Amino acid sequence: QLQASGGGLVEAGGSLTLSCTASGDIFRVNSMGWYRQAPGNERGLIATITRAGATYYEDFAKGRFTISRDNNKNSVFLQMDSLKPEDTAVYYCHADIMHSRNYECEYWGQGTQVTVSS
After folding, report:
1. pLDDT band for position 21 (50/70/90)?
2. 53: phi > 0 → left, psi -120 to 50 → alpha, else beta; which?
3. Which end of the chain is less packed: N or C, by CB atoms within 10 Å?
4. What percent of the chain has pLDDT over 70?
């Protein structure tokens, strides 16, 4: 239901943009977001965006990461700038997808690896 892409290897100070698209039986995609999980750590929130475009960022992401979405394409994006080695993690997209007016499920993408070299 969610397909993420855009991860890779980048040098410290560089930029990457992650993309994630929802597909399948979709009535409406509500909140979307990005999380990440570094080795030995729990999965943690980066940012969320509502269908109307309201955003929330964890403190570490403010000023460096930008979340956006395209409702026509059921897609969410994460622009990451000034990347640091500590940003190295598997990045996951998340979405609350309505399959009908009264039925909503949450979905996770498969994860995309981001590695930042020093």
Report:
1. very high
2. left
3. C
4. 100
User: Phi and psi (nearest 5°) for 23?
Assistant: -145, 170
Residue reference for tokens 């007016």: 101
For residue 112, give Cα distances in angstroms to 34, 46, 50. Answer: 11, 14, 22
Cβ atoms of residues 97 and 20 within 8 Å: no
**What string of DSSP letters covers 16-53?**
EEEEEEE-SS-SEEEEEEEEEE-TTS--EEEEEE-TT-
pLDDT on residue 86: 96
* Spatial CA neighbour of 95 closest among 64, 66, 73: 73
